[in-house]
Design a protein that fits this description.
- The complex is a heterodimer of chains A (678) and B (569).
- Helix content of chain A is 52%, strand content 18%.
- In chain A, helix 17 links the parallel strand 16 (462-466) and strand 17 (485-487).
- Chain A is elongated, with a radius of gyration of 34 Å.
- Chain A is built from 23 helices and 20 strands.
- The longest helix of chain A has 40 residues, at 63-102.
- With 569 residues, chain B is an all-alpha fold.
- Chain B has a domain at 3-279.
- Chain B has 18 helices and 4 strands.
- Chain B has helices at 3-31, 39-53, 63-86, 103-114, 130-160, 170-195, 223-232, 253-277, 281-307, 312-316, 334-347, 362-373, 384-401, 417-441, 445-448, 455-470, 485-515, 531-567; strands at residues 206-209, 215-218, 409-410, 413-414.
- In chain B, strands 1-2 form a two-stranded antiparallel sheet.
- The radius of gyration of chain B is 23 Å and the shape is globular.
- Classes of the chains: A alpha+beta (678), B mainly alpha (569).
- At the A-B interface, helix 7, helix 10, helix 21 and helix 23 of A face helix 13, helix 14, helix 16 and helix 18 of B.
């Protein structure tokens, strides 16, 4: 069973070895104080060891107590191993990050007027210090550029090797410690305390060193501790009740019963599930500042999405050319193409692309002059051999053609209206001073976005599109993308207002943003995802940072949050459901000697009382190992609606949890009996 | 076992729900302080009560002062009742000239009636004066039930609240539910019982000469009025030792039907009222369905256990027809009516009986015991059953709700560490009181003196007693003589824990729930109003209860069951 995940390649051997070592060091009871279930198991294991040693010393048959003691210790070790292996995966990532931090030397500016510089180790920098960073230098700490422009390689943080431009003033003035200046120089004002820089926090997060229990983990821990107490009562009182019936119960067997009943499965895997959740976020290059934020992501009711970049590609694209009356369609297309050949803007390239797709080709005529776009003419094109091609804003082109509105053909007027109404932008095309057609530029919705919004809707997440567009355009895009609501002509203040209204209705809100003016909204949102390339203020305000600066990532974040909660619930349900079978294994075994009639409860037909108890203990230990891959990978999340999801998972982990141990314990009993272990 | 028996069980449950539903709608109006058709008569009385006790009816209470009021009220009631019982010989209306009660019996009895348990360590007809019955015990039959109904109202309001702390006013709730609900239904039921032949008199005992020529003392009481509130208030403390098996308390099948319906109707109705006040009618219906299914299933198990296989004594007498198993049952009721009563009374923390549970087949008696161990929530005592079920629903939602990928919420309220902490505290009370005391009593010579039987049945008697006390049920497994210092004291403590150590965490949950924002449901919210949720809640109730008590039950009724099976083979 333990081989299945090694084969899957998810965990390499080095991590497994480290985790095995760490599982042993975690036996220190002080390490287990946060986990009452496993601590209780360890206490029972210790008591069982004493009792096994006494059995050996007194020369009585010690095979059974020794085996019980071994398996109880293994139960604790397996739980520790689960946690260690989850931590190990984060540690590997942290180590490579730490390497970038150690060597950094900063050039501290001590006198701004004379540019006097003292080399200072990065960790000695204080808040407000100003450092000079030149080409080839590693930026020593998080900070704000106060002077200069530089291209910065942020691969250490984002894994993206293409350098980005950072400059003073505006939204791109934030730099991160550990990243490298590739060209030019900047002066940076340090904005983080030593040891609490972005990189430090990132290392702490992925290592799990800074791990505090999330609210839901805390509640679950209370439930598990409560159940442990309930079973303690049930098992301890059995001594008195048994004595009435003339049964003297072996304390070791009672200890074994207690351990199999308390929720060791979820108790052992709980922290691994939490760490693995953070790890899955890290895999999609999102860094959460707390486990609480990941949990909140699963609860999100409303998702605020910027239109541009999230729902649509940033640029408008040509989707058709409507020919003027009497102009052949390919001729109109060709005119539009020639007018765009020298245009390197995304819109221009999209027209070239559209023409190629329609099989229309053209070369730039020899000796052509390109007429660039300008704010006054609001059109661009080519002049060659006395011929001219232009494309541009409809009113601008018409004016340069000296066409009054009444002279424009009705078909053209209708085409312009139609394009505008659908939320697109119409461009007029002219060839040699005559109007030949209308280009339809459209905000193109990213493929697959509509389906993801539908998935989200089924999971109860409402999507709201935020855009600066006018309401007509916004409505058209909203309906095409399938968002539930939209806000047109929105300002950053509107975002904050929407978040507050949604929250007042008791909804949890997620949003992403990058500008400094997004910071208040990011702080107000329950899940605020800041873009790594965004302003420092935004990164400070949000509780997650997307290292890829991809706004669609919010959707994945919500899924990771849900997956984390589902995994936790599934393992808890499984753990509790398991107990039924364990009772049917151990209760008859305990009492059948004095009350033979209780043999009827041995419905699994286990071979002997000792074998029944040993098999239950072994099953209880092995099931932790068997479920480690599930805890790390997470239960698959499906967007099928809460009722269906519950029904599915309840069948799998509830009913499955009832049945699985009956089969498992029986199989182990067959092996135990065959090997004559008990 | 025959179709008439099954039909009787189904009909009884259906009739109980049919009576309870409209009653619940009425209770919701009473909780909400709305006008009712009883206002012309009762409004002046209500106003007088507030004026007399200086209650400002518009002043709301937070959870702490609400809980404190309930505790203070119960504590004062306990002290007064204790003194009255201790010194009933000095008080009037004692035509039979009974002595005052011993300290431990007075303690046990006072706790018992204040906690709505009505465990009786004494035989009523040979112990209690008319004044003790009417001005002592009967008063608590009303107000202990009223306390439960009041707390349930506070819990319902907590779910309706949005970031609030006002849970209503305990004194107003107590006054209103007693005046507008408990008194009228008891009044009507008492008249119906009198019409059906139940006596109602203040005369002293009658001496009669039997056909054999011996003298017999026939105890007389105002039976009908006591009987009505005994059932409606899920009290269960009878005037006579054998409770509703006595021909004065329950003379005919008709009175039996009236009594068994009034046993559960108000508890069902409380759920309906909860749905209205908490603005969760569909969700309340799901809770009701859970209760109806479980109580029906329990009745079916008991009825089957009693009539499927012949009893060992019958086998040795050569009788093979199991349906004539009348051991412990009244001839005028028979197995079906006894089974449904047993299920309803143990499911409901009532504790009145029309048959002797100790004489049932092991599985039948064991089922009655298990019903109590589930925490008296199906449907449970008036009010207390509802809030017990809500605690279970919170736990069910918490465990399984995560599996829909959201942190759990119930009725628009997030279930977090604080709620779980108090829910687990409440859940711990039953195993602690039942198993803890039973394990000690099982090995304590002074306790075992009161025990009639050895072996599994003896253990069942011990378990049943502490179960009945801790669950505030009050029914007994014959065979245990409990009127002794050890039993009276420990059972009294178990009753106190079961009632008040449960009530306080529940109020703390209510306070915490009320303070949370009320969340709007979305497609991603765990639905708590459908069949799946009903199944889930049933599963959690059975598994949680089963896991706690299975080992103990295995040594009592379960092993006894297999022994009987083996013997009859």
């Amino acid at each position: 069973m333990s081989l299945s995940f090694a084969k899957s390649g998810a965990i390499d051997q080095g991590v497994v070895l480290t985790a095995l070592k760490s599982a042993v060091t975690k036996l220190d009871p002080r390490e287990l104080t946060g986990n009452p279930v496993i601590l209780a198991t360890e206490v029972v294991a210790a008591l069982a060891t004493v009792s096994a040693v006494v059995a050996i010393a007194s020369g009585t048959a010690a095979g059974f107590p020794v085996q019980i003691a071994i398996w109880l210790w293994l139960t604790v070790l397996f739980a520790n191993f689960a946690e260690a292996i989850a931590e190990g995966r984060g540690k590997a990532a942290a180590d490579s990050l730490r390497a970038t931090r150690v060597t950094t030397k900063a050039k501290l500016i001590i006198d701004a007027s004379r540019n006097a510089i003292i080399p200072t180790p990065a960790h000695e920098l204080a808040l407000g210090d100003i450092v000079l960073v030149e080409a080839g230098d590693v930026i020593p700490a998080d900070g704000e550029i106060i002077e200069g422009v530089a291209s910065v390689n942020e691969a250490a943080i984002t894994g993206e090797s293409a350098p980005v431009i950072r400059e003073s003033g505006g939204d791109r003035s934030a730099v991160t410690g550990g990243t490298t200046v590739v060209s030019d120089w900047i002066k940076v004002k340090v904005t983080s305390q030593p040891g609490s820089s972005f990189l430090d926090r990132m290392i702490a997060m992925v290592e799990g060193a800074d791990r505090r229990k999330t609210p839901n983990e805390l509640a679950l821990a209370v439930l598990l501790a409560g159940l442990t107490l309930v079973f303690l009562i049930a098992v301890v009182t059995l001594t008195g009740l048994g004595a009435f019936s003339g049964i003297t119960l072996d304390p070791m067997v009672l200890g074994a019963l207690f351990v199999t009943l308390i929720p060791t499965t979820i108790g052992g895997l709980l922290s691994a599930v939490g760490i693995a959740g953070m790890d899955r976020l890290l895999k999609v290059n999102v860094l959460a500042t707390s486990g609480r934020a990941v949990e909140a992501a699963g609860d999100v009711d409303t998702l605020l999405l910027d239109k541009t970049g999230t729902i649509t590609f940033g640029n408008r694209m040509a989707v058709e050319v409507v020919p003027a009356p009497g102009v052949r369609p390919d001729a109109a297309m060709r005119a539009a193409l020639i007018a765009s050949l020298a245009d390197e803007t995304p819109e221009g390239r999209s027209i070239v692309e559209l023409a190629r797709n329609q099989g229309v080709t053209a070369e730039i005529p020899a000796g052509a002059t390109s007429i660039p776009f300008s704010a006054t003419t609001r059109q661009s094109g080519l002049d060659a051999d006395g011929k001219s091609w232009r494309k541009g804003a409809v009113d601008a082109v018409l004016r340069s053609l000296d066409l009054a509105d009444s002279q424009v053909p009705a078909e053209m007027r209708q085409a312009v209206d139609r394009v505008a109404r659908s939320g697109g932008t119409p461009l007029a095309v002219s060839e040699n001073g005559a109007l030949v057609g209308i280009i339809h530029l459209k905000d193109v919705v990213k493929p697959g976005v509509k389906e993801r919004f539908a998935d989200l809707r089924r999971m109860g997440v409402r999507t709201v599109m935020i855009t600066g567009d006018n309401p007509v355009t916004a409505a058209a895009i909203a309906s095409e993308a399938g968002v539930d609501d939209f806000l047109a002509e929105a300002t950053p203040e509107d975002k904050l207002r929407i978040i507050r209204t949604e929250q007042a209705k008791g909804r949890l809100v997620a949003m992403c943003g990058d500008g400094a003016n997004d910071a208040p909204a990011l702080a107000q949102a329950d899940v605020g995802v800041a873009m790594q390339t965004g302003a420092q203020a935004a990164r400070e305000a949000g509780n997650m940072v997307d290292l890829d600066s991809d706004p669609t990532k919010v959707l994945e974040i919500v899924e990771v949050g849900k997956q984390l909660l589902i995994t936790r619930g599934a393992l808890t349900t499984f753990s509790i459901a398991n107990d039924v079978a364990k009772y049917f294994a151990i209760i008859p075994a305990l009492f059948v000697g004095s009350l033979p009639a209780l043999g009827a409860l041995n419905i699994m037909g286990l071979s002997s009382p000792e074998s029944a108890i040993l098999s239950a203990v072994i099953f209880n230990a092995l099931v932790i190992v068997a479920l480690i891959p599930l805890a790390l990978r997470g239960v698959r999340y499906r967007a099928i609606g809460a009722a269906k999801l519950l029904s599915r998972n309840l069948t799998l982990y509830g009913i499955g949890g009832l049945i699985a141990p009956f089969i498992g314990i029986k199989l182990i009993d067959i092996i135990v009996a065959a090997l004559k272990l008990a | 076992m025959d179709w008439r028996g099954w039909a009787e069980i189904v009909f009884t449950i259906a009739l109980t729900v049919a009576v309870g539903w409209p009653l619940g709608i009425f209770v919701a109006r009473v909780w909400a302080g709305e006008r009712t058709w009883l206002d012309p008569v009762l409004k002046p009385v209500e106003a007088l009560a507030y004026a007399g006790f200086g209650v400002d009816r518009n002043k709301g209470q937070n959870w702490l002062s609400y809980a404190a009021a309930a505790l203070i009220f119960s504590a004062v009631g306990f002290v007064l009742l204790y003194l009255q019982l201790r010194f009933q010989n000095l008080l009037p209306l004692n035509p039979q000239g009974f002595d005052g009660l011993s300290p431990h019996l007075a303690f046990n009895t006072a706790v018992s009636f204040v906690s709505n348990t009505n465990w009786q360590s004494y035989a009523g007809e040979a112990t209690m004066s008319n004044l003790s019955q009417m001005a002592g015990l009967a008063v608590h039959n009303f107000v202990s039930a009223g306390t439960g109904l009041a707390v349930a109202a506070a819990v319902a309001r907590a779910f309706a609240a949005d970031r609030g702390e006002n849970l209503g006013n305990f004194w107003v709730d107590l006054t209103r539910v007693t005046l507008y609900v408990l008194l009228p239904v008891s009044f009507v039921t008492a008249l119906a019982l009198v019409a059906a032949g139940v006596p109602q008199t203040l005369l002293a005992n009658v001496e009669a000469t039997t056909v054999e020529g011996t003298k017999q003392v026939i105890s007389l009481f105002p039976v009908a009025s006591q009987e009505a509130i005994k059932q409606w208030g899920t009290n269960g403390g009878g005037l006579f030792n054998v409770n509703s098996a006595h021909p004065f308390e329950n003379p005919t099948p008709l009175t039996n039907l009236i009594e068994v319906v009034s046993l559960n109707a108000l508890a069902f109705g409380t759920v309906v009222a909860f749905g209205r006040v908490a603005m969760a009618r569909r969700e309340a219906r799901a809770l009701l369905a859970v209760m109806v299914i479980l109580v029906g299933a329990a009745a079916a198990v008991i009825y089957s256990a009693e009539t499927l296989t012949p009893q060992p004594a019958m086998i040795s007498a050569g009788i093979t027809d199991a349906s004539s198993n009348m051991e412990g049952k009244e001839v005028r009721f028979g197995p079906a009516a006894s089974s449904i009563w047993a299920a309803q009374t143990t499911g409901a923390s009532n504790g009145s009986v029309n048959a002797m549970h100790g004489s049932f087949m092991p599985l039948g008696g064991g089922t009655a015991m298990f019903l109590m161990q589930l925490g008296e929530i199906i449907p449970g005592g008036v009010g207390s059953g509802l809030y017990g079920m809500v605690v279970m629903a919170l736990l069910a939602v918490f465990v399984a709700g995560l599996m829909v990928g959201r942190t759990p919420e119930y009725l628009g309220k997030k279930v977090e560490a604080r709620e779980i902490k108090f829910a687990m505290l409440a859940v711990l009370i039953l195993p602690l009181a039942i198993l803890g005391f039973s394990a000690i009593a099982a090995v304590l010579p002074v306790a075992l003196e009161g025990l009639l039987n050895k072996g599994p049945h003896g253990l069942s008697e011990i378990l049943y007693a502490y179960t009945s006390a801790a669950a505030n049920n009050g029914s007994a497994f014959a065979g245990l003589t409990a009127n002794a210092p050890w039993w009276n004291t420990t059972l009294g403590i178990a009753m106190l824990l079961g009632r008040f150590a449960y009530l306080v965490p529940v109020m703390a949950i209510a306070g915490s729930i009320a303070a949370k924002p009320k969340l709007a449901p979305t497609a991603g919210t765990l639905p708590s109003d459908n069949g799946l949720f009903v199944g889930l809640l049933i599963g959690i109730v059975l598994i949680l209860g089963g896991l706690q008590f299975f080992p103990a039950l295995a040594l009592g009724p379960i092993v006894e069951h297999f022994q009987v099976l083996a013997a009859s083979r």
